[in-house]
Model the fold of this input.
Amino acid sequence: MADLSVLCAGVPLRNPFLLASGVWGESGDSLAGAWAAGAGGVITKSIGAVPRPGYPNPTIETYERWGMLNAMGLPNPGIDEYPREIEIARRAGVTVIGSVFAGEAAEFARLAGRMAATGVAALELNLSCPHAEGFGTEVGSTPEDVERIVRAVVAAVKIPVIAKITPNTSDPAALAVAAERGGAAAVSAINTLRALAIDVRLRRPVLSHGLGGLSGSAIKPVGLACVWQIYDKVSIPVIGVGGIMTAADALEYVMAGARALEVGTAVTFEGVGVFGRLVGDLASLLDELGYGRLEDAVGAAHPAR
Ligand SMILES: Cc1cc2nc3c(=O)[nH]c(=O)nc-3n(C[C@H](O)[C@H](O)[C@H](O)COP(=O)(O)O)c2cc1C
Done:
């Protein structure tokens, strides 16, 4: 059987499939459930400085075949409450990556320090949520902002820092380059694409917030293009995310340049059992293609450098 273990951002992963931030509850038990089902690691819901209730319903619209639209509004219990959930997951032996969001660099750095103190293996900075005023894309869509925030966080913690970047900009690869300049250990791409659904009978947007973020199969080609372009421009590892539903999707991302992967909407649709399926199918697919190790396939679709 092909070896699926990878080293990404200095974090050893038993396989490349990470639970993506925000898609499977936020409790320690739900993180541990994803791990028990076979995930290579888990990323927490993005946690902020204070509790947030998120937006009123409706916050999700589901499309049967190709994904979903969400505007949750970053609901989370806040950094004072959340460490106890991480403790539950860590006691279960889970490799946990802590996701944080903030409105500016100093707040990011403070929050990152608190998150790092919980014992997480790495941090992921949410620089990319497309629907939360004052956060996410609003603070992470220029290279200058990304570099400043990453640099401040890297100076504040001793664990690897992963910058999760947005596709909602003309040059996502420039954001990845800025993250690397700021000292990021890896970059994850992509977060959801800004999108909209309208209820024609009610004559208004379906989601209470109006605009939301699109995820699932529909965004896979966009995510792949971002990973492809980023791989060419940075030397830190790239984590691919967006529409991974099958082992073939996963291997496309790996061949585009991803060293690890995040799985979101597929977990929402199928439950955490998706991890066991993806691990088994990817190992079989690599065997079929003659790869002994997943790492040998990273970037394989790029012309030889
Ligand atoms: C309901 C929902 C909540 C999400 N919450 C977060 C979040 O808190 N932080 C974050 O960085 N990304 C969040 N995301 C984005 C996902 O982590 C992922 O980047 C995106 O859904 C694309 O992957 P997918 O197509 O596999 O779902 C969320 C996505 C969904 C669908």
Residues 22 and 128 are 13 Å apart (CA to CA). The pocket of flavin mononucleotide is lined by residues 20-23, 45-46, 68, 70, 72, 74, 99, 126, 129, 164, 191-192, 215-216, 219, 241-244, 263-266 (CB under 6 Å). The mean pLDDT is 96. The radius of gyration is 18 Å.
